Amino acid sequence: MMVPLIDAPPNPETGGRSRSLMLAGAVTIVAGLVAGLVVFVVGQGRTDRAVENLARAPVGCDTTLEFSGTGSFVVYVETVGRIEQLEGGCDAPTAYDRRGAGTPDVSIELRGPAGEEVVLEPTTADGYATDAFVGEAMGEIRIDDAGRHLLRVMSDDEDFAVSVGRDPSGAATPFTLAAVMIGLAGLVGGATLVAVAVAGNRRGPDDDRVVDETMPQFEPDGRVPAAPPLAPPPPGAVVSPPPTGPLPPLPPPPSSPPSPPSGG
Fold first, then answer.
1. Among 78, 88, 169, 255, which residue's beta carbon has the most beta carbons within 10 A?
2. How many CB atoms neighbour CB 5 within 10 A?
3. pLDDT at 138
């Protein structure tokens, strides 16, 4: 015999709550992805500005570079771009585009404030490519003394320039990481809400039924469950030992008194 169940009326709030959770989850996912994309685009904009702000030196001219700080700077061969202003009597082209022509052979000479030579060393930096500028890393220089440096670019080709500055990709790194974290947070949070909503919709037909605790409970095989054990008696209490043999028979009931004689 099974436990008796009583059908409960359906709860109209259950379906509405599941739909609200599913809608909130979808909105959270979309909002996280959109916010992450916005942050990523902002980071790319910072990269573009960092590329545009690189110092540029044309071929065949001596260009003065003013270093306000020390440290490592990357030197690029820029095959697509422009130079806003040329120094002195330099007549190099101010705009250049070598798409499809390959990277030209070039050498540079850089001297510090005291005339000391700054050596070009290998670099692991990548190049850059924006709508207006394309450059390929050719080496790295170490500036130990801030101030004016003189850069000379030498090559048989003239339709390019050499750019110098910090690695532009570093400007976007914090924004890229933030975009990934925001997008993941939106996905995880939204997926959690949707999962809770789906779990609520998958409730079985017996989930809305309740047990009538006033009716006797039975085991699946029809047996009445054993009563829970009694609590032990308190210390000092007198407990009668359980009987060890059959109980004595009950005495017979007393015989009824004789009836009085009837009057004659």
1. 78
2. 12
3. 94
Could you give the CA distance from residue 36 to residue 34 in angstroms, rounded to a whole number? Answer: 5
Residues 234, 33 contacting (CB under 8 angstroms): no
Give the count of beta carbons closer than 10 Å to the beta carbon of residue 160.
27
Rounded Cα distance, 38 and 179, in Å: 8
Which H helix or E strand runs over 28? Answer: helix 12-52
Phi and psi torsions of 176, nearest 5°: -65, -45
What are the pLDDT digits (tens) for 54-108?
999 999 888 999 998 899 999 999 999 999 877 766 888 889 999 888 889 999 9
In 3D space, the residue among 156, 163, 170 whose CA is nearest the CA of residue 47 turns out to be 170
**Residue 215: DSSP 8-state:** S
Tokens of 76: 């690029």
Picking from 228, 213, 226, the residue whose alpha carbon sits closest to that of residue 3 is: 213
CA distance 134 to 226: 85
Separation of alpha carbons 1 and 218, rounded Å: 6
Gap between the Cα atoms of 52 and 163, Å rounded: 10
Secondary structure (H, E, C), 97-151: ECCCCCCCCCEEEEECCCCCEECCECCCCCCEECCCCEEEEEEEEEECCCEEEEE
Q: What is the pTM of this model?
A: 0.56
